[in-house]
Every structure is written in C-alpha cells, then in structure tokens.
Request: fold
Amino acid sequence: MKIAFIGLGNMGGPMARNLLKAGHALTVFDVVQRNVDAMVALGAVAAGSAKHAAAEGELVITMLPSSPHVKSVYLGEDGVLAGARSGIPLIDSSTIDPHSAREVAAAAHTHGNPMADAPVSGGTGGAEAGTLTFMVGADPALFEFIRPILAQMGKNIVHCGGTGTGQVAKICNNMLLGISMIGVAEAMNLGASLGIEPKILAGIINTSSGRCWSSDTYNPYPGVTDNAPAARGYTGGFGTDLMLKDLGLATDAAKQAKQSVAMGAMAQQLYQLWSAQGAGGQDFSSIINLLKKPS
Amino acid sequence: MKIAFIGLGNMGGPMARNLLKAGHALTVFDVVQRNVDAMVALGAVAAGSAKHAAAEGELVITMLPSSPHVKSVYLGEDGVLAGARSGIPLIDSSTIDPHSAREVAAAAHTHGNPMADAPVSGGTGGAEAGTLTFMVGADPALFEFIRPILAQMGKNIVHCGGTGTGQVAKICNNMLLGISMIGVAEAMNLGASLGIEPKILAGIINTSSGRCWSSDTYNPYPGVTDNAPAARGYTGGFGTDLMLKDLGLATDAAKQAKQSVAMGAMAQQLYQLWSAQGAGGQDFSSIINLLKKPS
Amino acid sequence: MKIAFIGLGNMGGPMARNLLKAGHALTVFDVVQRNVDAMVALGAVAAGSAKHAAAEGELVITMLPSSPHVKSVYLGEDGVLAGARSGIPLIDSSTIDPHSAREVAAAAHTHGNPMADAPVSGGTGGAEAGTLTFMVGADPALFEFIRPILAQMGKNIVHCGGTGTGQVAKICNNMLLGISMIGVAEAMNLGASLGIEPKILAGIINTSSGRCWSSDTYNPYPGVTDNAPAARGYTGGFGTDLMLKDLGLATDAAKQAKQSVAMGAMAQQLYQLWSAQGAGGQDFSSIINLLKKPS
Amino acid sequence: MKIAFIGLGNMGGPMARNLLKAGHALTVFDVVQRNVDAMVALGAVAAGSAKHAAAEGELVITMLPSSPHVKSVYLGEDGVLAGARSGIPLIDSSTIDPHSAREVAAAAHTHGNPMADAPVSGGTGGAEAGTLTFMVGADPALFEFIRPILAQMGKNIVHCGGTGTGQVAKICNNMLLGISMIGVAEAMNLGASLGIEPKILAGIINTSSGRCWSSDTYNPYPGVTDNAPAARGYTGGFGTDLMLKDLGLATDAAKQAKQSVAMGAMAQQLYQLWSAQGAGGQDFSSIINLLKKPS
Reply:
C-alpha cells in the first residue's frame, strides 16, 4: 500500500522501517532532515511537507511528540488535511490528550477522512522489534481496515472503542502504572528497612494481593528482577520525564472531566520532584531512590 | 498434638476447627464465653485463662485483634509465658506491628520459648476453607517444625525470614494493595468518564503495565469482575476498616523506620475519609465510590 | 474618560457601575443581552461586538470567565485588537493562566497597544463596594496611567511587576489560601475531636505560629468567626468551584514551570472531591465538612 | 517555693535557671550528670532519682523528650508518683500525645496529685529569655495556682481547657504550621519560577487571604524576611526533625480519633523525605529547598 508516514523520531523511525520491510511504499516527512535521509536510504520517498506527504498516501500515519504538534501537522496550512484525498484513512499514533484527539478527528471527519487514534506502548525496543501494543480508538469498520497494517508494527492491536478511546486507555493505564510503581517502591523500601530480604518480599507480594507488573516484571529494587532497569542503574526503559508527561495528560483530562484523581496527582508531583533533582532521563522506576532512606 | 489455641473470633474460630478436624487435641481460651462453648461442643477443652491454656499445650497458637491484646495475652500475669513450659513453641497469627512482634518474641525467647509471627491473608473465607496464606517470621528450625501444622489451616506457608518478618511482609503487601486499589479506582473512574467502556479498559490494563490484582481479580468497578465484592454491593470481602488498620500499622512502622511512604499515607487518609462517611464495614474496593463523580 | 467595558457578569457588572458613578462614559459589550440592557439603563452605550466597543474607548477593560474567552475576545475577528486604535491601553481583569495572559499581551503589543493584566480579589461584595484588590502586571508607565481608574473600582492597587505578574500573584496567593483553609479545617476538626473547645483552639492558633487569614478572619469551624460563611451555612463567600478553578490554574502553571506543588495538587483533588459531592456552590471553607468525622 | 525540676536538657535547663533567678529552691534530677552539675553550680540541690527529687518539692515540673520518658519518669518504680506527697501539684511541660498525657494525669489523680500538661512553644531562645508560651491543660483551680510560676518562665500562659488540652493545642497548631510552611514554600517557588519578584509576592500575600505567620514572619524564601532562618542558611530556628516529631504526634492522635488529616499526613511525608535527604537538623523552613526546581 502507498503509505504517508509523518514523524520519524525514536518511535516513528523504527515503525516506518517495519512498514518498509513489510513491502509498503512510503512517502515520509519529518522536520529533522537527518531522519528523512535515513528513511530515504532504505527506499522511502521524501516529501517537502506533511501536506505533500499526505497527498501521496492511500493511508496516513503520524507519530508526533505532543498535542500542539498534532494539531499543527493535521490542521495547519501545509498539513495533512490540506493534502489528503477525501476518504483516505488517517492514523495518529502520538500520545496526546483525548480532548485534542477528538477535536482533530472531528475536523478530519468533516474533511471526509475517517481517523483513528492509536497510541502505543512498548517503547523504542518494541518499535524496533515490531512488538508494540496499539490502543486504537476508531469506528469498527476503520479498525478492521487498519488492523493488518498496525499488526506489521506491533503484536497487540486492541480496539478500545470510538474516537479518542485509544488515548483514554493509554493515559488511564499509565496513570495506574505511575501510581503502582511508587506503591511498590514504598513497600520495598519499607520492607527492607524493617529487615526483610527484598527478593523474598517481592516473591510474597507477587503471589499475593499486592501483585502487579511494577513488582513482578519491573521491580524497582535492585537485585529483584534480573532484566529490569534497576539491574542496570536505571538506564534504558521508560524515562521519568515521559511518565511525567503521561501523568500530566491524565490529570488534565481528569480536571476537564471533574474527576478526582488524588493518587494520580500525588504521583505526578513526586515524579516532578524527582525530575527536578536531575533524574528526568533515568527510568521512572528510579523514583525508589527519591523515597529511600540513605543507608 | 496437644495444642493451646487462644483467640476464637471470626478468624481464630475456623482456624481452630480445622485443627480439631485434623485430629489435634485443643485446649482453648477466649474472653467471649460463647466462642469457647462453640469450640467445646466440637471436642475442645476449655481453660480459664491464657496461662492455663498454654500450660496444657505442646504448642501455643494465638489469634488476637491488636498489639495491646498480644502483649497482654503473652506478657500478662495470667498470660502465655506465665503458663507455657520452657521449650514449647509459640505462634502468633495476629496482624500487629513488627516492633511489638519482636518485643514479645524476645520476651518469649528469654523465657525459653521459640516464637514465630505468622499473620495470615485470605479472610474468613480462607480460614474456613483452610486455604489461608501464612507469612511466617521464624528461625529455620522453628519454621520447619510448625509448617505442617500451619498447612492444616492454610495452603501457602511462606517463610519470610527471622522474627517479625511475617508482620513486615503482611503490612508491606497490604499497604501496596491499599494503594493499588485506589489507583485502579481512579483509572477506572477516569476512563469511564472519558467514554471508554469499563470492561474494555480493564481488559487493556490487565494485559498491560497497569496490570495488578486489584484490577484483574478484584476490580472495584461494578460489572468488570464477576465474583468481586463490586458485583454484590461491596458486601463480604475485606472491610474498609480492616484496610485502615493495616495502613495504620504500615505508616506507624514507616515512622519508626524513618521511611517516607507518601502514597501509603495518602491511601490511609482516603480510606479514613471513606470510613467516616459510613463505609467502614463495606469491602475496601468500595473506595471507588468516594472518588466517583456522581453521574 | 471614554472607556470600553467588555464582560458584564457578576463581577464586571458592578465594576462598570462604579466607573459610571465616577463620571466616565462607557461603551459596553456582553454576550448576555440582559447584562447590556441593565448597563444601558444606567447611562452606558451598547456596542454590537467587542471590536465595536473597543473602537469607542480611550481605554479598554475586560472581565471574562476564562482563558479561551480572553483569547477569543482579544484575538478574534470581532475582537478588541481588531477595533482598538493603536496606542489605546488595555486592561484584562479576568483570572487566567499567566502564560495566556502573556501571549495576549504580546499580541496587543505587536498591535501597538500596551496591555496590563489586573485580576482582582474581594468577590462580588468587593466589586459592588468598590473595595477590590487589583494585582497588576504592567510596565511602570502603564501602571501609573491606569492606577487612578482602577482606584475607582478598588481600594488596593498593587503593582506586581511586568506583564503576567498580576496573574502570577493571584494564583500563588489563592493556591496558598486553598491549602491553608484545608490545614485550618484539619487542625480545628482534630482539636475538636480531641476535646478542646474550638473557639479556644482558634484563639491560641491566632496568636501562635499557625496564625493565618483562614483561621483568624474566615475560620471554617462554625461558631468561631462571627461573620464568616461558616456562621451562615457556608452561603455567600468564595465558592468551592471558584477555588477549584484557581487551583487548576496554579497546578497547570506549575506543570509548565516544572515546579512541584504537592500540597497545591492535593488541595485541588480534595476540593474536586468536595465539589463532586455536591458542594461546588458552597463557600470553599465548607471543605471542613468533607473532612469532619460525623459526630 | 520548693520546686522539684526533672529534665534539664536544652529546654529544661534554661527554664530551671529562670526559676532559680526568681528565687525558688530547686531540687533537680536528670539522667545526664553534666546537666545536674551545671544546675547545682547555680544553687540547686541534686537528687538521685525522679522519686527523690519529687519528694522534696511543693511542686513538680518535668520537661522530657517523649511519651515513653514521661510514662517512665512518672509511673516507674523510682518515679515522681512514688515520691511526691499527696496533694502536691505536678506540671509536665513535655510535648507528647494527648492520650498519654491523659493517662499519666489519671494515674496522678488516683495518687492524690492534681496534674497539668503545659507544653511550650518558643524554642531554646524563648526558654532562655523567659518568653515561652505555655499551653496549659488543667482544672481551673490548678491553672490559677500554677499560672504565676509558669509566668516566671514564659510570657503567654494560655488556659486551653481540661487535662490533655494543652497537648491538643500544641499539636494542632504545629500541624497547621507544618502545612502552611509547605504551602508558602510552594507559592513562593511557583511565583519565582513564573517571574514575579519574591519580595513583592510575599508583600501581596501578606496583605491578602494567603497571609500567615509562615509568610509574614518566617518566610522560607531567602531575602524576604530579614531575621528568619532563611536569611542565615536555615540554621537556628525549629528543626525539621522537631517538626517531624510533632506531625507524628498529630497524625497518631488523628488516627486514634478517626479523623482524616490528609494535608497533615502529606506534610509529615514531605518533611520525612527532606530529613532523609540530610536536612533533619536544618530549620524546617528549609523544606523550600526540597521543592525548589534547581535554577
């Protein structure tokens, strides 16, 4: 299929490469020329703007850093809607607030383009391996149409409901993740300072009611999970500042929905403290060190 | 074996019955005569005090509501240590703070009695079915000795380390549980108010990084988990006030250990609010209703 | 002076009346016709749009509910900048985020109009009595020029610094107020439940290091401050939902500034809980009832 | 008058000296011999135990670090009650939890001794200058009797109500203080990072609804209050660990009273974090540096 791919950064780059490998013809655009060049070297065609890229596609996929970028790339003068032929489906894989996602999708709809929000989880590792999870907000027909293409970049393609629900699923899951990680950090720290062996404590939690991904797969206490960031000085993984971004989206959405998220807001503040102490680039599980009593 | 069993309430009663069924000879004591009578009707022998009960046992098991009860039952004039022969092992299955557990165990040790702390999880259902989890703090030799007896009352018998670590494991796990449950409640409420179907959201979380027992086994949102308290008006299960007790133990222990537990403390305050609004006797997952925007 | 006044709601209406009383000639605009009619009855001239009102003024004053309104009223096709003659000073008395205030002021500056942000405190009572406090962000020359006009609507006219600092002062003060009020509520509730007479406790706090406006002037505990909202069932005063709006502005600004405001965020969540329980229209000091143990 | 004074540390030492200066005959006891020697050098008589000191007094005053000390000094074998003649009034100036204060007072009452709790504020500076505030829980007759003696060590002698209310007033005030200080820190940090001059912001707050002792008398932002600890690197003043102790007493008392203190608990956790980062000995207003974004 002829696909327009816009946004070729750490995530978009490997995603686009997997589409090339799968045999699609890509027209690409990115504000960073180096990212474009790398993709052209692999057989993609460069376009001079989002508009020109979109004009070449039977399908448009975007992967951008934040909501203002998405608005400008879709709604701007040289944007996707100005270029895409009517009827061409659009997929935005950026993580943004559900409100903006719905606003852009409504504009696309008016323009005659069905649009899906399809944020991902799985990080750069998942993008490269083609094992991302896609959380998709789209009409059923659109979902069925795009599912096989997404499956060339990921391994779990989940239909979350109508427009915007992909974003909703992503921020709700990540808010819970941010809370659980601090909960695990506090439980592990408390246990260790009260004299239980951390690995034994984790083992008990992992077979009890405290069981969670942050404990059994990604434990923040060094020496508990073999391949977690805690085993390599909190490098790699999912950065504190990325978690902070998602908690910002979640608490903003909660404010608009007039929904109390006391723990989510507290988590946001604690990651903010930790980021301000210089740990924005470390894996988010390093938050355990903000809370740990020095030994 | 001749076992002295002290404390025959909602948990201790069924635990003692399982020991009778397993063929042990029980001498029992409780301050509530009715509880004693019920056990005598099943073949136990009544004693007039903890001291007299302990004097009859080759092993002493206690199941009491709180730390002051444990101290008085063990250290009082008519208490266990005043009656138990030297060398007889003691098991306390109460949930109390690790500091008090260690204090009582040290007094027992001085008196010549090895002592284990062995708090349980699994609730009254687990006590009756004999499927409790025991978290045991004890020397290895003592653990090996008591393991088969505990196995007649439970199905997971976990060795957590030396004295007090059973309590540590219990309060750390339950603090994390209390936090996770609020996290799930906030995520489910937020998702629902932003338009995603709760059951779909839970499905996504349960296969993603937000996955936890509070979401996949005990989801607080009605209609998501078939047999959870949320499916029956938050009756049964683990009461808000019991969660509040455990969070009180955890934050107290954290204070003594000079360990920050910001989320644990916040969870304690939210369950306190909810209890004050009249929900102390409802299952703790009902906290979702404190946080839910009225529809 | 010929003044264009735009936004004639609960606050703007009485402010405009005070300017009429002071002898100014007002051209007014509001989207609610009834508000316009009331002002015309007092001698003002009605304009058909913000643009037309602005075209008639030697000074423009706006009083609007939120940041999107301010952007649209200033920057829209029929907006203030489209109508105001170059050089005419602009004053926005809305409470909005500092970032938006600076964005609009920059656009005004480009258009040749000096602009001040001048949010107020003092409520509708202060607006009617002409005793508002104005917190003004403006260049010194502009501040000196507008000070006498503001003094016809208020009694404290405070220069906070350059553009945007009026908004900064307002949200910082109100965030602290929102926190202090909950702090006082918790202290009063705790004291009362521990057996001290509330009025005596307040007296001690008011002469000690806990002293604050929320305790000595506006105490939330009934029977402590004679004329506070607590003395009249939490009617009148400053509504929970208004406090919630200001805490939303403060936490948003903190997010952009990457500044941790843990207590501010917690306050926001507690007022959100309280609002969801139906108290959005009550004075914000009624938050004491969210936290109070039922007696 | 012949006064027994027990506990001659940083606070008790200067208090006892002021009583000597006022002409009283002191019999003193402390576990640290050096403290006793210093007082003997000034004319006091040393006793070998709390019991022996109490036996010599027509009035007993104690100043001890914590609740276990108070219980042991009053109720122990060599304690005050074992020595004091019946009818002799007892004053405890320690800061402890109200529950323990009432327990000890009840034991004293049974023994025939009226007892007052009279914790102080004002720090070592106030103790030396004789300008302490005493918050007194006592029957009216006892209060009238001890007031003149307390007035020789302090300048504000406040009657808070019956037994225990002195402690209640102290912990409620200090909990509010701990909350307000963080609130001021957050407001000042936020304002500064949004571009308002800190001294101007403080000036506005101090004449507005955010006004409080932490802002107008003890501002944590350097350069705002001339003589506050912030002006001298957070030395002197009231240490982070002392604030932490008082917040621990307040949250414990709240737990027993089943009263939610969400902000008080959060403040406790933040001071705990700050103490763990090494600032336990700094003035508590240094908490601003935990929250401040590095510039």
